[in-house]
Amino acid sequence: MPGNMSASEMLTREFPQIRHRLIDIAAALDRIDRAEGANAVQSDSRLASLREAARVLTDGRPDRAQRVQMVFSDPYDPGWRDAEPR
Predict the structure, then answer these.
(1) pTM
(2) CA–CA separation, 78 vs 36, rounded Å?
(3) Are 29 and 50 within 8 A, CB to CB?
(4) Do the beta carbons of residue 57 and residue 68 sit within 8 Å?
(5) What is the DSSP string of 1-61?
(6) How far apart are the C-alpha atoms of 52 and 71, rounded to whole Å?
């Protein structure tokens, strides 16, 4: 059970998959940087969200998963029930 594992055991178990995911993300960002029109997307809000999510991952504060999810979430709209469907 994960709850019974020490932090060291958890790191040993999770390290390869985390490393793989980070390398995959780095490679995807490199592909964007090398693609035609890369300068045009530097101000794209999606790229800004990816950068903000990366900052959340490295800020050392708790609840990273929740905070990363919030980076990609729309702000709450109290009138959402009255909005026209898209």
Answers:
(1) 0.79
(2) 41
(3) yes
(4) yes
(5) -GGGS-HHHHHHHHHHHHHHHHHHHHHHHHHHHHSTTGGGGTT-HHHHHHHHHHHHHHS--
(6) 7
What b-and-e string marks burial along 2-25, b requiring 16 or more CB atoms within 10 Å of the CB?
eeeeeeeeeeeeeeeeeeeeeeee
Residue-range definition of the domain harbouring residue 68: 43-75
Q: Measured between alpha carbons, how far is residue 54 from residues 2, 17, 51, 61 in Å?
A: 25, 17, 5, 13
Report pLDDT digits (tens) over 26-84.
999 999 999 999 999 999 999 999 999 999 999 999 999 999 999 999 888 898 888 88
Q: Is residue 57 part of a domain?
A: yes
Tell me how many domains the chain contains: 2
11 falls within a domain: yes
Residue with tokens 């991952």: 57
